[in-house]
Specification:
Elements: H1 3-10, H2 14-19, E1 23-29, H3 33-43, E2 47-48, E3 57-58, E4 63-69, H4 70-79, E5 84-88, H5 89-95, E6 100-105, E7 115-122, E8 137-140, H6 143-152, E9 158-161, E10 175-180, H7 184-188, E11 191-200, E12 202-206, H8 208-212, H9 214-233, E13 236-244, H10 248-254, E14 262-265, E15 271-279, H11 280-293, E16 296-302
Parallel strand pairs: 1-4, 1-5, 8-9, 8-10
Antiparallel strand pairs: 2-3, 5-12, 6-12, 7-10, 7-11, 13-15, 13-16, 14-15
Helix pairs in contact: 3-9
């Protein structure tokens, strides 16, 4: 990042400074960028211009978004250059950053599952456990975490920083520590996992002084509620249906026991309206069974936010 960009981060536009307080919010640039912007859209915010500028626009005058690599986000938040931001738990640990963790956010570029930094070797390697790497060389982008991992196990290795394409280096050194969500890239490169070094999810973090500021804390907490609500809604759908009262016991018996449906009277006193929120994967199994049990006018709809 250039000195000019760094200065811009420290000094928001004069219009913002004079008109109202602003939350300087770091948005991760790179692999998490699109997923983060999509999540904000589901939470009700429109972020535009991220493909052209490090300072995109958002339809909230109290937020100033700034694009930064996840790898350095926690350092800028700790230093107070940013009030808050989104980064992985892995980079908080790698940077040893002293920040306030607002909440985990279970979303990523590929799945909602946590990402893992894994120790991997070629399929043909004789290495079966970490101890077999004693005296070897490990390539990784996550140097500090990897060094501490081997130190805890009392295994002497040399950890070298990898500038990318780490899978290729697995056959040039003794092993690698690489990030994976599904394991597909490792399999494609004929690598196998020996051990998990660190499990990581995206975290919403805040500068400790910013967290003490009443305006900034309220803004951050409001964002956390809306973003988590959007995440909660990703795997859920709403269902509505009409049911003759004589069929109501059979229909309610089919619906998931842990979910309490809303049952409302209709103008026709012989019928009731039933509404429930269920897991999307359950919906496809429920619809035929509900139809056979007497439900009619079945409607399903997606949800934007679910607040627990």
């Amino acid at each position: 990042m250039s000195a000019r960009q760094s200065e811009q981060m420290k000094n928001p536009s004069k219009d913002n400074q004079l008109s109202q307080p602003v939350l300087k919010l770091g948005i991760p640039k790179g692999s998490l960028q699109n997923a983060t912007i999509d999540l904000f859209a589901k939470a009700g915010f429109s972020i535009t211009g991220a493909d052209r500028s490090y300072f995109p626009q958002i339809d909230d005058p109290q937020i100033q978004p700034i694009l930064l690599r996840a790898q350095e986000m926690s350092r800028y938040v700790e230093a107070g250059v940013l009030d808050a931001g989104f980064t992985g738990y892995d980079w908080i640990m790698e940077n040893n950053s002293k920040v306030h963790e607002v909440c985990p956010l279970e979303y990523s570029k590929a799945t909602s599952a946590p990402a893992r930094w894994v120790l991997a070797v070629p399929n043909e390697s004789k290495v079966q456990n970490p101890e077999d790497l004693e005296g070897g060389i490990i390539a990784t982008e996550l140097v500090g975490v990897t060094q501490r991992y081997f130190r805890r196990k009392k295994i002497r290795v040399k950890v070298e920083f990898s500038w990318g394409a780490t899978e290729v280096k697995a056959r040039l050194v003794n092993g690698i520590v690489e990030l994976t969500e599904t394991g597909s890239s490792l399999r494609a490169n004929n690598l196998r996992i020996v051990d998990t070094v660190l499990v990581s999810t995206t975290r919403f973090i805040a500068n400790r002084q910013a967290w003490k500021d009443s305006f900034k804390r309220q803004k951050i907490e409001n964002l956390a509620i809306l973003l988590n609500a959007a995440i909660n809604a990703k795997t859920l759908v709403g269902m509505k249906m009409n049911v003759a009262k004589k069929d109501l016991p059979a229909v309610l018996q089919i619906l998931p026991a842990e979910k309490s449906p809303t049952v409302s009277p209709l103008a026709d006193s012989d019928y009731a309206a039933v509404e429930i929120v269920v897991e999307e994967k359950v919906e496809r199994e429920l619809i035929p069974r509900l139809k056979y049990a007497g439900a009619s006018g079945i409607i399903t709809y997606s949800l934007n936010k679910v607040i627990h």
